[in-house]
Amino acid sequence: MKSKNKKILVVGGTGFIGYHLIKRLTKINKYDISSISTKNPRKLRKINNVRYLICDISKKKKLETILKNKKFNFVINLGGYVDHGNSKKTFESHYTGCQNLIKILLSQKINKFIQIGSSVEYGRHKSPQKEEYKISPKSLKSVYGRAKLGATNLLLNYYKTHNFPAVILRLYITYGPKQDINRFIPIIINACIKKKEFSCSKGTQLRDFIFIDDLIKIIIKCLNTKKIEGQIFNVGTGKPKKIKDIISFIKKKTNGGTPKFGEIKFRKDEILKLYPNVSKLKKYLNWKPKISFQEGLTKTINYYNKIN
């Protein structure tokens, strides 16, 4: 008997966001879920009843072979190369990979393609950043930013010319349990749990942080919301926090750690204020964050406390 469940492909399903998204989708119980990544999931992030496909999406022929005879209703593209120091792989995974997915999926008439973009696409545009900003790829210094913006523009072009049902979510900073240890919040939590001294900047930068559960709710809401194709949405809380205040909160909660504020100098091109205008997200998706920053941070600290 054929499954009546909607078929969903999560590209990058073994990563931090992919893991949490798939975990939530399995609980909804109306999706047949496949994940595609370059490696099998770590034990920590393996989920039962998920089809794990192994492929580098920047390799078109291999991708065509892997996806042959597979039909999907929804595709969520979280794929990408983590080490942005490798320019070639960064561009191929974030731009070429997206291009390959579009070309292979174009004939399938999928219901929706959700692209996970990045705030880096705005470059030095003033905060609170708005979706309607016109951005020149040449103005972006990082290969990652140019690749992400290139993928966004490509998807919008395919929406206009082929009615390809793309929705772009421009993420700010996501955090939560099971995030890789080399990210800002886990680094600070681990240093404080282990009562270490650590160098940091003055911490006057403003950044926008969204808890993983809130992000997952937005992605799922996008799956179920009609007439949002061809749109870009900023994804954050719209309420930026000072880096120094975050470090101080973690230090207080963990009763440890000695931050050396000011030991790390700001980069020459450091953007001191980086946060989104999220009014479009609220308008189209009727969404607002459910988890306060203090609550999200406390849940994250509790997780790292358990595994240390």
Task: Describe the protein's topology.
Layout: E1 6-11, H1 16-28, E2 31-37, E3 51-54, H2 60-67, E4 74-77, H3 87-105, E5 112-118, H4 143-162, E6 166-171, E7 173-175, H5 184-193, E8 197-200, E9 206-207, E10 209-211, H6 212-224, E11 231-235, E12 241-242, H7 243-254, E13 258-261, E14 273-274, H8 279-285, H9 293-307
Parallel strand pairs: 1-2, 1-4, 2-3, 4-5, 5-6, 6-11, 7-10, 8-13, 9-14
Antiparallel strand pairs: 9-12
Helix pairs in contact: 1-6, 2-3, 3-4, 5-7, 5-9, 7-9
Strand order of the largest sheet: 3-2-1-4-5-6-11
Instruction: Could you tell me the CATH topology label of the largest domain.
Output: Rossmann fold
Helicity range: 25-40%
Per CATH, the class of the largest domain reads Alpha Beta
Which superfamily, in CATH terms, is the homologous superfamily of the largest domain?
Answer: NAD(P)-binding Rossmann-like Domain
Number of helices: 9
Major sheet: 7 strands, parallel
Instruction: Give the H and E element order.
Output: EHEEHEHEHEEHEEEHEEHEEHH
What is the general shape? globular
